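Internal tracking record. Fields below are filled automatically when a chain is submitted to the structure queue. Please do not edit lines marked as system-generated. If the sequence contains nonstandard residues, flag them in the REMARKS field before resubmitting.
Queue: standard
Priority: normal
Entity type: single polypeptide chain
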Amino acid sequence: MRITTIGDPVLREPAAVVSPEELRSPEVQRLIDELIETRRAAGGAGLAAPQVGVSRRIAVVEVDDATRYRYKPLVPLTVLVNPSIEPLSEETLVINEGCLSVPGLRGDVERYLRVRVEYLDRDGAPGELVAEGLTAGTFQHEVDHLHGVLFLDRLVDTRSLATWEQFARHGEQAFLARVAPYTRS
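SYSTEM-GENERATED OUTPUT FOLLOWS
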């Protein structure tokens, strides 16, 4: 699927809740498969339905060896339907994030350090997980998409914006040192 980019109104709208009937439909099951394939092809850590132009509360998260974020802890494929996030503490972590819908840019975003994510899986079964560190940030980033929020809206300082190339050159080492307790070992 084509990933839509900043400026497309679908990225700024709250996505529609998915009913149990819709979730069982071949159309929505195909959408989930296409989200997974598109995320894998693009190398992102996750992808939400609005990012492919579909205003539905569905996202996928998966961090594997092919992701462009090689420092993030591995996360098995997780399909999130109608997810909600609850912070488990007030403690936060500033994470330098990028987004497939904001190509070429990264910036610092403050995220809750530890969260509980409740969701339905692709079969409609309830799921719950607790995530922390960079992984918590990934889940918050994807759920933000379902509320029409981009990481740019959460920047702690616009001066943190950088291209991927300039981040690698001037900011990556300091960032990785700061988040070392939360990176893949």
